[in-house]
Predict the structure.
Amino acid sequence: MEWWSRAMRRGCAVSVALVVALVLIVGNGMAAQPTKVRISYSSRSNSNTPFIIAQNKGFFAEEAMDVELIQVNPRLGATAVLNGDLDFTTTFGTTLRGILGGFPIKFVAVAVKKSEHFLVARPENKEIRDLNGKKLGVSTLFGSDQRAAEEMIRGKGFAPNMMKPISLGESPVRAQALRAGLVDAISITSPFDLNLKAEGFRLLAGPQDVQIALPTSGLAVASRTLQQNPQLVKRGVRALMKAHRYIFENKKNVLPQMIRYLDQSPEVAERSYELLTVSLSRNGEITDQEWDILTEKKKSADEVRDFSLLREVQKELKIK
């Protein structure tokens, strides 16, 4: 009977080993199937750099995310998130306006916290006062670039509503509308401002004239996704924070990515990088006081953002 007992023990050991092996195989198989995730952005600009870096340097892949970055009209990004057509949107201004209007969406991180926009005008407009009553080309009405233009105008001591905003679409379209004389000025980011300046257009104001935090990019998600799938949201936030850290610590490796993404010269990319590192949020946050300014206290900070997962990520990555 002793030999039988030994055989049974060996059989049990083999069975346990087989079960463990099967679990490992299945687990590895599951890990090998990353979650497909769709993230929208509103316009091709340097504000997208953190997401391009997260994609190209494998930070999304490290979080088992198969990410598709999709350009979507900023007016549609928040609606697509609510409908489930998108998992996240990076569009900030229009999304915030939707949240203030009742959309059940929360920002879970801020990428670019300070405006990188320049106010570029046709050559005949030599100073801000010359723009009074004229047309301002913007991406979408009440979006981040319009808000930036208004703050630049305010920073120069003029009424922010002195110009009539015209919705035109993304940066190349706005630049072409300015060239064609369809509008008198546009609010636009690097490298487009330098290209226009080289063509004889005037830079009348820039980021230095914006006195408040004015985010142009973040990570926003439907409230139901936060509740039902917080781990997916956390993985997205963690990938973004890895990209932020990489940008600050690896200039020589980031510049080629910026050059390829927007087909900008090394000199322009260098200047764009310096602007980005001034504007990028190191920890993915802005303060509650800054939220109050952005929302005009129509909603509290807790109603428009949820940084609980971000703060977990900050601790894990030792980001202050």
Remarks:
- Residues 1-31 have pLDDT under 50 and may be disordered.
